[in-house]
Predict the 3D structure of the following.
Amino acid sequence: MQKPNAVIIEKKHYSKLDRSRARTGFLFALPWIIGFLIFSLYPICISLYYSMTDFNIFQAPKWVGLNNYTALFVDEKFYKSLWNTFYMVLIATPVSLIAALLLAVLLNQKIKGLPIFRTIFYLPSIVPTVASSLLWLWILNPQSGLINMGLKALGLPQPNWLMDPNSTKPALIIMGVWGVGSMMIIFLASLQDVPRSHYEAAQIDGANAIHQFFSITVPAISPVIFFQLIMSVINYFQYFTQAYLMINGSSGGSGLNNVQSGGAENSLLFYSLYLFHNAFGYLKMGKASAMAWILFIIVVAVTAIIFKTQDRWVTYGDE
């Protein structure tokens, strides 16, 4: 039987060892902690203060209370940017998800040369956003672009993708579908995890491919669909780069008015772009900070609503 003193000594030894390991782990994590405090937490906190001030970078901020928020709620461009952003969230998100899932289903079939096809469909997603956007500016060119040349050859109308307010957002959605390779890969991995026995049992019961897809595939990968939905919604709420490049590319990229433009009839004035205009075009940092916090609240609210719905359509494990 172990003596009490020996037990106490052993406990002290393990206690010192645990503290030593904790200190070592903390020291390894310290660079990340410092970076998070300086470059993430501090800007978040200070932006809340700036959102209640009149601040233009060159002068000290002046406290104005909720004036920035009230000014936004009577700003027509603010509502226009919200509408454009919600359009992308509500239209582009499901289109991208469906396109990525259908591509994953096709690339999950046993056909010859499958690795080549998977590589071809995945490659666009690793092209930098700026490079792919500039490529699509050429493809969407109303005079010499590949899309309009193809439509002309078929005798179909050729939209002015870059300048017609009815075509600018659909053009961006087409660009987004071209780059769904990352989503496709995640869907593909989840499809390969669905047990084949489920499909074999369904075939014995006489279920066709469509019934199998909606009765077996979709429920089995619903957690992955849920994850992709959340990430896609958050990304589209922050939509910026493609619209910014399309505006400057279609207008020649010269002049301050082009930089602060929202495209044809402000059809490309997305929320993040208007925030950028206020911050770095008009130097209204207080107003831009207020917009950032409003966007944060909207994203949290929409994400919470989506989470509330998961019990109705997301299945985990053997549920």
User: Anything to note?
Assistant: Strands lie at 53-54, 62-63.
